[in-house]
Amino acid sequence: MLSSVAFLSGPLFLTPGEWTSTRSLITAGLLFSLAGDFFLIPSRSEFYNANSNPQQEKKISVSFQLGVVAFAAAHIAYILAFFQDNEIISWGTFATTFLITMAVAKWLGVIYPPPHSSARSNVLDLDLPADMKPLVLVYATIISVMFATAASTTPVDVSSRWQYQRVFGAAMFVASDVYVAKDAFKKSPGSRGAWLIASGATLVQADSSFEPANFNVTAALKVYGLDTSSIPALTNFSKRSTESACLAACASLESVFGSEKVLAQENTSYASFTDAFWSEQQAEVRPSCIFKPGVNTDVAIVVLLSRLTRCPFAAKSGGHAAFRGASSSPGGITIWFTDMNEVSLNEDHSVASIGPGNLWGQVYKALEPYGLAAIGGRESSLGVGGFVTGGGISFHSNLHGWALDNVESFEVVTASGRIVTANATHFQDLYWALRGGGNNLGLVTKFNLYTIPSSTMRGTTRVFEEARLPEVISAFASVSRGATSDGNAQQYVAFARMQGVSVASAELSYALNITDPPIFKPYRDIPALADTTESRSLVQYCEYINNQNPSGHREMYWTIATQLDESFALWAAEYYFKIVPQAANITGGNPVIIYQALTEPMLANMTKFGGNALGLNTSQGPLILFNMAFWWDNAADDNAVYAFIQNYYKVITDEAKKRGIAHQYVYMNYGSQFQDVIAGYGVDNKARLQKVAATYDPRGVYQTLQPGYFKLNGAPVQY
């Protein structure tokens, strides 16, 4: 019994990671085993007396019955745990193992053995009372089912365990029951059955670490068929400099995958990569090489090679971040997902499997023939990867929430090269962390997103003169609060200088093709300088928005969030128009302030599937999300742009704090390279993210070797 208590402490206290349904079942099984040990204590003196006096009739006691029932319940819990933590089952193996186990039980004499006094004996030479036979038959059947389940199922995270760990644990249970049977019905007390039961249960469950302390990168590469001793570039390279490490890593990748998959700077296709970035700062980055994986195992190999050589890396999905190094690694390896561009549907079309190399325009075009879409970007050139893991506001977010709240599962390559599927039932902690955690937990190689119906939409761009600011802000607040009654509406308002005129431009979308939806009446009541209203497909609408935001400029974003307060929103817009002349000398300068609402329906959807990492809830809303965006032409003006935006950011942040409406949240997809996004999720969520990262990436690969973009402990590395 003491050993059962000792082994019970493993699942309860020592196994890392979040609590799961599988762990709950294992723990329940151990508790039942502990109870079984307890109930067998009085039975042991009965067995001893009966064995000491062969003439005494053996009778089944209540204590013994309770013990057997408790152990049977334990085995049922383990069976359920095996099925819960199961990738695939071989029913042929199950049936064969079950029949063999039952035959062995009969041979040993556990199932209906003849009386000890009969001429025909059994292997264990058991003397089983007649009234015990039905109970023991049921128990033996449960044991056989457990052993068959162990032999025929495959754990979801099988690569973290010894291949036969589950079968060995179940076999230990079978052995322990043999000892109990001999102890009870033939041999003297003192067998080690209880110890074996406890150890068997622990062996079935034990997985002390997602990445073992003795993890070996070279051995992990061999799992993927890569023998480092056969690659010349890896035999004599020096880790003393990043340059030599990356030369070795890139040469190794080229020797394995070929020059079509590994682009060096002299490769003619190298320019096609740099041209695919949205901002000029990102396009300026020159990686040592560009790797184009085709399947998830290719991604695992490049992560492991980075670990082996200590060459930094970055990953590019769409490349729509503004700042240098966000999705390209200066002098390192940049993983370009362009060839991982799958878009497919499951059988009932409820889930779309989307590769990280897709842009949202490609996704929508692939799903449009089915009358479907996914919660995705509002510009066709946005990439899937960073958009989803950072948040993801869509045209349908008031109906269904953000993109990260509509993920069925992630296929992700972890720091050890293991490829797992994280969802609401398996690797729940990783699933939670990927929904807002950015690139800090792994490289996602497949996004399985819930689909939504898609039809023709109604879209309007209304432009107002500066004098109409109070009315525009009032309309913005009205539509923001009205989302609770009409989730089809979506909006954002941009404040800008157009050809020397200060204007407010409202983008009003409606998920249905309805003329003049009532929710937008406050905007229609304001006289407009211009109005473009059209019915469009989702594909067409995203291309329209994309054309308003061209690539090839120097770019900067900065963001804050506040409570939805009309007077503050008006003050912040008026202050922007007051200071915007200060940017007049910046060549090609175009500063824009954009307001978006984090509505109550959006916030309510953030509780789906166990919630996300953002730290937002309905009690805090609605909120205004401010995006301070600026594009310009010349690198010589970089510092002037930074100073302009930082000044605006500081002034409105201080004012929001003074009014008591400031909010800590920082939206990753609009964040500046100078902002600590993860801190904006709150102390508890930041600590939880760090805990998850420590479980799946104990050596900090995605913090140190992938230093670009927003890290768990602060702003991105400044290149």
TrEMBL record:
InterPro entries: FAD-bd_PCMH, FAD-bd_PCMH-like_sf, FAD-bd_PCMH_sub2, FAD-linked_Oxidoreductase, Oxid_FAD_bind_N, TMEM86B-like
Membrane-spanning segments: 20-41, 62-83, 89-113, 134-151
Membrane-topology descriptor: Multi-pass membrane protein
Keyword tags: FAD, Flavoprotein, Membrane, Oxidoreductase, Transmembrane, Transmembrane helix
Main localisation: membrane
Metal-binding keyword on record: no
Occurrences of domain FAD-binding PCMH-type (ranges): 283-454
Record's protein name: YhhN-like protein
Lineage: Eukaryota, Fungi, Dikarya, Ascomycota, Pezizomycotina
